[in-house]
Every structure is written in C-alpha cells, then in structure tokens.
Amino acid sequence: MASPITGLGVTIQRQSTTDQVAEAVRQAILSGRLLPGTPLREAALAAELSVSRNTIREAARILGSEGLVRHEMNRGIVVADVTGRDVSDIYAARAAVETAGVEALMARRDTAVYGKLADLADQIEHAFGRGDTAAVLDADRLFHATLVAATGSPRLQLTGSCSTRCAATGHRPARS
Hints:
Number of strands: 3
Strand content: 5-15%
Mean pLDDT: 81
Helix content: 55-70%
Low-confidence stretches: 167-176
C-alpha cells in the first residue's frame, strides 16, 4: 500500500529573507493592495516585516528588475505604474513564453499537468462566479505559471513570472 503522503507534488525550497520580502511585496502589488504610485517607505516596511532596511533595499532591487517598483529621487521606492504600452509589450512576451509551454505540453502529453491546468481553470470559474477577484487573479497566475513551467526552462519561467503583473492591472493589450 502506498504511503498517503506519496505524490503531494510539492518541492520545499529554502528562501532567503530577501526573497521572502520580495515575494510578500510582490503579492501585495499583484493583488492590488499596493496601488501604482504608492511609496514604499524602507523604515515602515522593515518594521512591518521585522527585517533590516538593507533587506528591504535588496528586495526592492529584485522588484525593480521585474518592473514592479521604481526608485525615484527624493521619494525612494514607489510602486510602478503600468502604461498601455507596457501592457501590450508584456502580453506579447507572455504569448511567446506560453506558446513554448503549450508546445512542450503537446510534445510530452503530461496528464498530471493537464489535470492541474483543468483544476485551476475550474478554480478560476468558481471564483469568478463568487465574485472573488483576488482568488480569480491568484488562480489565473498559477494557471499561467503552470503552463510556463511545462517548458522546463528556468529562464522562461522567470520571464513568464514577470508578466504576471498584467493580471493585477485588469488591462488587456490594445488591438491593432
């Protein structure tokens, strides 16, 4: 008889404090809790998260490389605005990366990934039916991340994760 914990499908990874801070702020931005233009004061964030200001600065550099925050002279770290041009560019990149994911899925025919995608699609549908925008966005982000993960490429996964910020804006690319 198989162990009941076999097949959980979870890999535990250690994360640095900086990565944990970046993830916490990233999720606050993507969920809409931190709106574009919101200043992120180092001292306040450090106190809230019980970390050093240096850790906040390191996390801000990560988020800056993802385009989620920017550094402004005399203002510090600010949640970045997403322009229509940004949205179009992000969706073009996302389409290319996700196409690679679809091609990899078609080549491998991994039923576990198909099942996960179907489950996430159901979660999106049910959350939408309940009017739970946060759950819709979270399941949508996981759906697209799963699709990109099917490529098996860490670089494409990084590129795909950067495009998830569009989901939080509610924008779609302009039609030509």
